[in-house]
Amino acid sequence: MGRDGADGGPLRLAIVGLGPKGLFALERVLDHAHRTGAPARIDVDVFEPHPAPGAGPVYDPAQPAYLRMNFAADRLDMWWPQTQAVPAGERLSFVAWRRCDAGGVRAGEDPYPPRAEVGRYLAAGLAGLLRHAPPAVCVTLRPVAVEALDRRAGGWRVRAGGGATHDYDEVLVTVGHGLAVDPLGTGRPEHAVAHVGAVFPVGRRLSAQRVPAGAAVAVRGFALTFLDAALALTEGRGGTFDAGEHPYRLRYRPAEAEAGVILPYSRTGRPMLAKPNPRLAAGIPALDAITQEGSARIVALPGGFSLQADLRGILAATAAASLFAAGGGPARRASAVAAAWLAAACDGAPPPSGQSPAAELERSVAIGAGRRTPDLAWALGHTWRSVYPALVRRVGARGLSDRQWPAFRRLAAQLERVSFGPPLVNAAKLLALVDAGRVDLTHVAAGQITSTGAVTSLRSARGARAVDVVVNAVLASPGAGAGLPAQLRASGYARTLPGRRGLDVGADAAAADGLAIIGRATEDSVIGNDTLSRAMHPHADRWAAGVVERAARRTSCAIGAS
Fold first, then answer.
1. What is the pLDDT of residues 370-391, one digit of tens each?
2. Model pTM score
3. Of 233, 236, 243, 240, which Cα lies nearest the Cα of 254?
């Protein structure tokens, strides 16, 4: 066996992980195999332990409907432009597929629909890919996890669950969200309460057996996963939301089976702001031109550019112009305030808001629903979302010097908070839970879990509250900190550049000869991996083109030798 094709057999390819990233990579292989002018024999083994390959755990079709996307539905299309992997009639965008699936024209209008529906769309796409695979390409799904990779003569050995090994010419690693580190240490005797180490899947992790009705629940984290946990413990237990004076002013009606008070705690206590209704930006005529100019300036930044002097200035100017276009105040003053906000973010200090967490979230809902004039946080969020593809092109890999990466990561963390938060409906639900006393934000800033005797409490500068259950709602950070990516780094098969979290890859996702990596494991070498966008990252297409070219060369050599 070898990449030079000496044995004359098909190229043996392993894809490790078949969530959306792995699915999209498989689509590119099958498309290039359809297009190649010469036969390309490829045996593809896909390793995915989750029972819904293509969707994976994040988009599991079995999860409840209140777990929603925060990626706009009208931007989701799993098919590469003009792909030949499936017939044209089957290449439906998510919105078009959803209308057909539901049998009605209005079914595709929800801008941030349930993640389970996305999972069904992705699973349907995988089924289509397998139905129409070229005759020379054999795809086999293996429902097991991969534990390690080892380099072998001419290729790679995959060690899967149960101790089985399989040899391949090439491997693509596309593993996604790993398990978070348990912050308390499950089973530590000093914590005399039930402890739930992760939120997903909510039906198992947050069941009534693990989180009893009426229990006081401390939840570590105050981001999107916290919101999913709060909804699972309330709406998921039979609670309901009624509309108030407008669609995003809700009232909550509790149910007997739900958990008691829910107490989030995090380092800063700052909420992720609601994503605005897409129609809000569409109704501001000058906005597209402003953000397009900002994107062009980012792409044109020279080599060795400065985060502080160059990139931060572009972001401040773009946000200020956006705010002015939206009627939010003079551009000159907004530019100075935006510059100060961005400077604080780069230094790691959350820019002050002067508001309580609930008030800050409520303001973002009012703005996002078009009921209040946009403010600076809205302008910064809109700017970051709009120029993000340009940032992916210019900042990833070696776009920034090693010494500037820590500041960029601090900046990104603050801008992601105002850019990539929950959809309006889920933000409104959180506010309704706060109003109803089901979510208590008293200890949300810098709270800590402590135990004295048989009592475990959530403590902060504002006092203490005894709790019955502690839930970890913080996901593992992207990068190579654990699991298979960590093993690849420890074995010397892949490397991490100074200041980065993820494994270093080339423009075609290559980390080593015959080893490619796509997704969260490459974060900082490639930025913005947590997206369903097909247009933002061309790595999978370049990788697949190379795989099919090598397979065609091998097949041609075998035919010539026969």
1. 999 999 999 999 999 999 999 9
2. 0.93
3. 240
